[in-house]
User: Fold this.
Amino acid sequence: MVRRLIAVRAATAVICAGAIGLLSGCSGSSGSAATGGPVRITVASEHCGAGWIDPRTGQQTFVLANTDIVSGEVFLVDAGTGAVYAYVDDVAPGATANLRINLAPGRYSFRCAMSDAGVARGVTVVVNGVSRGGARPVRSVTDNDLIPVAKAYQSYVSAALPGLRGLVGVLAADIRDGRLAAARADWLPAHLAYERLGAAYGAFGDADSAINGLTAGLAYGVSDTHFTGFHRIEYGLWHGQTATELTPFANRLVADVATLPSVLAGSSVATLDIAIRSHEIAENALQFDLTGQTDYGSGTSLASVAAELDGTTELMTLMRPILAPRYPELSTAGQALQRAKSDVGAELVGGRWARLAALPRESRERIDADLSGLSALLAPIASIAEPRVDS
Amino acid sequence: VNEIDRRGFLRAAAVGGVVAGASAITARTEGPVRPGHSDASATPFHGQHQSGILTPRRAATALIAFDFTTRNRAELIGVMKTLTGRLGFLAAGGVPHNVGISSPPADSGILGPAVVPDGLTATLALGSSVFDDRFGLAERKPMRLRPMDTFPNDNLDPAQCHGDLLVQLSADHPDTVVHALRDLSRSTGGAIQARWRIDGTLSPPRPSGLRATTSDSRTEPRTRM
Assistant:
């Protein structure tokens, strides 16, 4: 999950932090871009944004040259509202980065957020002319914006924990007392209570691996001593293992779930996590549940997906105040979420979830399509709601 | 017994179905182009006929069969337009749009900051299954179009048969093919779901490793698929 976070951050940087080869690529590309070479822009605490001569609309390239002695982040903003057109992560001192962007007419300004220094504001540059497809500015989100959302999400999770503990307790008692048929029935409600938290990609760190980990990466697979939690118990319950064999895992699960309140209180849900979580739950469902990788015998992948969509719904509700003024496709995303819930929910017939492998091709493709489309529609939230330096 | 196998059928279809196909294929595959050699010139996606049929064979190919998960005709039209737009861009190459912070990067970045054409061709075919009542196309179904037969030497996995949309992506290098496939999957937002995929590579002719300057079956590379 750590790798995941890094990947998302790196991907955000890739758009802007162009390689040296970009320039030749630009000049060689076709299109109606106005002529004129790249404009060299100063990145520094003093004279931030200096060098913007001959402002014009359309596709163009800025060479951001850090002339300072510390690294800095660069924003191209709407001079009036401060909304961000482009963001370049960390330009090292003495280094340059290419920023290629299509500009519509407007009033622009560079901001240089240098390490250990305040944000330097460049002069306002008025760009006149006509253009098509200019970049759309987004009001940047700060940590302060996200803290209430993170706290509300934390409260949602905290409030759900006692219920989870209760259901896990029932499951563990079934196993300890040798009532394995009852345990098979009680496994799903307990597991769904956990999935509903929206713990995609191991949001709860090591506790998540212990509680909901898979055999991926474990040398001895289902026999590996590091394979614990819901799926370990699921494997045993649906593969004829005895209560004696499973009791240690049941006890371990009870203990691990009991640590969640302190995990939650101790680590706090990082604000960045909140920004990326909305699409990651859907993506996680697509990658692991809808491919059957999380099914160790119970055949309840679709139930998990439904629970994850509930978690997504909760998160979207919490994020709404931040997203509504910033994300034009929010209502489309909401419709996609409803569509996914409805298509997945249709596979619950007479209180039983259809097994993934038993789905007709059309149904399975439809649900895959729903979750793909939903992930794609939620993905911009990770970028829009990434907390950035307040400019 | 006049049995025809799948390979023979496809070869015959390619020669007979494409106007003046045979001679053009021979003519165009001549020349010192080696597999793996990057031809910087782009092959236009748009034209009187689809690309990837008479164009010289590329070193890397993927054939992917998709099913449409669109729910109506309007959505289907939307997907076809998206495919047209994306393939036009990918075949021509260029620098992907910078969408600022409003979205993740517009491109996967596999090919670097600028997308190189790398000889990419895309050839699309619709399966007979598209011409049903889902999209109101039943009456437009070409008269002889029907699901592919099972041939005598076939040993088919039903999961890897048929499909609504067959896409052949070919380029001088496999990364270009993968890049194009990822772009199509992403830009269509789940509206096409891959049913099966088979990759093909074109090896250099042996023993010389060089493409012959005249057509000679002894030096033509075998298609590995």
